[in-house]
Amino acid sequence: MKTEIRFYNTLLHDVEPFATQEADQVTMYSCGPTVYDFAHIGNFRTFLFADLLRRFLEAAGWEVEQVMNITDVGHMTEDDLADGGGEDKMEVSARRLREAKKAGRPDAAAVDDPDDPYQVARYYTDAFLTDARALGLAVADEYPAHMPFASQYVPAMQDIVRRLIDNGHAYVASDGVVYYSVESFPDYGRLSGNTLDHLRSGSGGRVTEADQNSKRHPADFLLWKPDANHIMKWDSPWGEGYPGWHLECSAMAMALLQKDVIDIHTGGEDNIFPHHECEIAQSRGVTGAPYFARFWMHARFLQVEGEKMSKSMGNFHTARDVFAGKVTGTPVHPAVLRLELIKSHYRSHMNFTAKGLRDSAQTVRRWTEFGRRLEQEANGNSQPPDDHPVVQRFMAALADDLNISGALAEVLPWMANCREKASTALGVFRFVDDVLYLAALQEKGAGTRQTEEGSDEVAGLCRQLDEARTARDYTRADALRQQLIDAGYEVRTTPAGTTAHPRLA
Ligand code: AMP
Ligand code: ZN
Prior knowledge:
Blueprint: E1 6-9, E2 14-17, E3 25-30, H1 41-59, E4 63-68, H2 89-102, H3 117-134, H4 154-166, E5 170-172, E6 178-180, H5 196-200, E7 221-226, E8 241-243, H6 245-257, E9 262-268, H7 272-287, E10 293-299, E11 302-304, E12 307-308, H8 319-323, H9 334-342, E13 350-352, H10 354-377, H11 389-399, H12 404-417, H13 422-436, H14 439-443, H15 446-454, H16 456-470, H17 474-486, E14 489-494, E15 497-502
Parallel strand pairs: 3-4, 3-9, 9-10, 11-13
Antiparallel strand pairs: 1-2, 5-6, 6-7, 7-8, 11-12, 14-15
The structure holds adenosine monophosphate and zinc ion.
Adenosine monophosphate is lined by residues 31, 33-34, 42-43, 45-46, 71, 267-268, 270-271, 299, 301-302, 309.
């Protein structure tokens, strides 16, 4: 089903008809997590926006090839500066884990040696994949093929640096650092509005005069930094050191998607500058093709109860804290968090609230029960849904720059009043659920994974329950079952053992 699709393109600052280079295929690159801590719900809002976009395009008949990187090197703490500054985020993480180990805190036990950044990255990558799969990110099921580590693409990044130096877009400064020369790219600033004129006058404090030392222009950004003391370092013609953060996405997108210009590039709004502006400049510098991606799409930031999410405000929530009930007092099924994070338009500031989460829980519960009833009544037989008006209106809303509220407003009232033949309704339900991925996520058993990997405590109770049953101590088994139920879990015992997953509402 090909619908006329229009997306907002940050590059044009406007909505435009969506077109791809190849008839049925979309190449899409999504900036991924920096694996120095557990991913928070803001990160997942951005990742889930990309997932909804992907699933919508697939439903519309495209084959989507999506790559999402895992950043394990070179992402500095002061990443709003064109040049990056401060410390590598992996160093911050190593220090935090070292201190936790010294203090004997249990959270440090998972990483044997915090001084080994590869161990730290491995630990947070595993945690990310667990959360991402629980939330139904399709690309996480394609790990590792479509989720590359930046540290494994350093030779490809060095190749880009070499080519940029050769063709005059980059230079080695007097202190040995390799910079991209922004003045060599007249279109610098087109994506973000931070043109060189703006930057020269210090617009928005983006470029610090203090850090200019040997740079030709204050906005020149780092491609390679010789630094033998960096937490991760590689030999290079420019000295032992590490790559600039922006380089990794150009290198991995080109290597894995095999294109000079990809169809869609996604990220959060903070990625627009400097990260994506610099990606465009350096990719253009090597390929000569304009703009690296045809469509640049960015999700706006998530806020919590109307405020910016920050550790100091105490409103900073990781996805796993939400699942475990640490935010609302009761466990939250990942399908509920998924709906909560996709249900507002990606270009509006999303406001995460406990009330919103309760509403999402109710919607997911009704939707899932509706689907189960239809599956039973129709005995699994569904009619092809393409011509159904609900499907057409659902897709038309999403084709309008991913208007999710409009799409839900077609589907939810239809569900509430549905009097159609079960097999017809089931076709519609399955089609829509393939895009929203709510009921499917539960059938997939995200809840079970939760107990295995998300919460040690719950998994421990399930194990004890099974031990009690084996020992025929049914009083204890019942007490443990009740403890889980009281904590908000649905408990299932099968011959394979007991699992518990958060009740939906
Ligand atoms: P990071 O792990 O810091 O590299 O960020 C991963 C992704 O999350 C990036 O695309 C960011 O733009 C995005 N992001 C970070 N904070 C938020 C937020 N509060 N709301 C939405 N997206 C965010
Ligand atoms: Zn990126």
